[in-house]
Design a protein that fits this description.
Elements: H1 2-17, E1 22-29, H2 39-56, E2 64-71, H3 77-89, E3 96-98, H4 102-116, E4 120-122, E5 139-141, H5 146-159, E6 164-170, H6 173-188, E7 192-199, H7 207-216, E8 220-224, H8 230-241, E9 247-249, H9 256-261, E10 270-274, H10 279-291, H11 300-317, H12 322-325, H13 329-334, E11 338-340, H14 345-353, E12 358-360, E13 368-369, E14 373-374, E15 378-384, E16 387-393
Parallel strand pairs: 1-2, 1-3, 3-4, 4-5, 6-7, 6-8, 8-9, 9-10, 11-12
Antiparallel strand pairs: 10-15, 13-14, 15-16
Length: 394
């Protein structure tokens, strides 16, 4: 009898776990390229949400979650497309956190994700063009469009009493979209853009670009570039020649590289990037610290939210099929139910399983608008004593 009971119990355990599966989630970020210093924190943010869900044991009856990283390079559309294709066809992922930069995100979405019916949620692709790009309901983002960032940057500059700026941008979808939205907003409020000039990444010498910016003049230089690439080249040239003493840094320029390579040289300069404050943000910072990474790093919190939204949507749809759960992403993001913050994902999965709605606030106070993108708030920063300091949130 004892042997029979043990055998029955063992069979029950096997049967109970028979339906549990490994859910692979892709992460497509620029682990090499012009924003490689930001990618580790972003990947860690996404994986923190995946681990939280996996450890809870509550996803679709006990499914585990495993991350698979891929290098989008941030700027090479062909490489990014190949990465997303591999994640889908070879690795069998059920969703992708990514891409990272707007151009490669557009390419990998259109050429790989859409043909395979794969959901992508980008934590950092901010080009306004993505707002109206046909995507079959497969693309979302947890960072706000640069149309909004241009307005926020305009307000900051005006509040600093700066009436004219020179503007340079990295020569791609992100740079041009941000530069155009900022220039329109700034000039509409009475500011003057003395020059609006593109720069290419990967050059050894930016003296010609800096000379043109200096000749145009302005009270400050706005650099809509990449801190690990041409943006730093422009900044170094402007500092070394004394062309400008005040700089404005959008999101692509706000990272540890700015502190490490320039420090006190850019004291008094300022900028912004998408971020939030409040209960969710504080909880995420605590969890990130416990996990051994800096949760305040640019777009790390947005990456956590991107992964969490997909996993909660799977629970709501009772399916890991992207073509099924894509219709639940907006529901869990904007639902009328209990507010869900970092650390609450297990509870959220329980509530959803019980048929109760949830309102995912996450680490960045998520509210999705329009074509699946975040309304967003911004962290205004200033460089003080060589360090990036928070001024306020907008």
């Amino acid at each position: 009898m004892k042997k029979l009971l043990l055998a029955t119990a063992a069979a029950a355990l096997v049967a109970g776990g028979a339906f549990a599966e490994e859910v692979k989630m892709g992460i497509s970020l620029g682990f090499t390229g012009p924003l490689e210093s930001m990618s580790p924190g972003m990947a860690s943010g996404a994986e923190l949400a995946m681990k939280e869900v996996s450890d809870s044991g509550k996803l679709l009856g006990g499914d585990t979650v495993t991350s698979v990283r891929g290098d989008s390079t941030c700027i090479d559309a062909a490489a990014a497309t190949a990465t997303v294709e591999r994640l889908i066809t070879a690795e069998g992922v059920k969703g992708i956190v990514g891409g990272m930069c707007s151009g490669e995100t557009t390419a990998s979405l259109q050429n790989a994700a859409m043909p395979h019916g794969m959901v992508m949620i980008s934590p950092s692709a901010t080009s306004p063009a993505l707002s109206t790009l046909p995507d079959n309901g497969l693309f979302f983002r947890t960072s706000p469009s640069d149309a909004r960032q241009g307005e926020v940057m305009t307000d900051e500059i005006m509040e600093h009493g700066i009436k004219s700026v020179a503007l340079t941008y990295t020569n791609n979808d992100y740079g041009k979209g941000l530069a155009d939205s900022f220039a329109a907003a700034y000039e509409a409020k009475g500011g003057k853009v003395t020059i609006n000039a593109a720069h290419d990444d990967g050059k050894a010498d930016y003296s010609a670009e800096v000379a043109a910016l200096a000749a145009a003049g302005g009270d400050a230089l706005v650099i809509a570039g990449y801190v690990d690439q041409g943006g730093s080249g422009i900044l170094r040239g402007a500092l070394d020649t004394g062309a400008f003493s005040t700089f404005v840094f959008p999101d692509g320029m706000v990272g540890k590289t700015l502190e490490d390579n320039f420090g006190k040289e850019v004291d008094g300069s300022f900028g912004q990037y998408p971020a939030s404050e409040g209960e969710g943000h504080d909880k995420f910072l605590e969890m990130a610290k416990a996990a051994g990474f800096d949760g305040s790093s640019t777009y790390s919190a947005e990456a956590y939210d991107a992964a969490a939204l997909m996993l909660l949507a799977m629970q709501a749809a009772k399916s890991t099929d992207p073509n099924v759960y894509k219709d639940k992403v907006m529901d869990v993001a904007n639902g009328p139910g209990e507010k869900i913050y970092p650390g609450d994902l297990g509870k959220a999965l329980e509530l959803i399983a019980e048929g109760k709605p949830v309102d995912y606030e996450g680490a960045t106070s998520v509210t999705m608008i329009g074509n699946g993108e975040a309304a967003g708030t911004f962290r205004e920063i200033e460089i003080k004593d060589g360090k990036i300091e928070t001024v306020k949130y907008r």
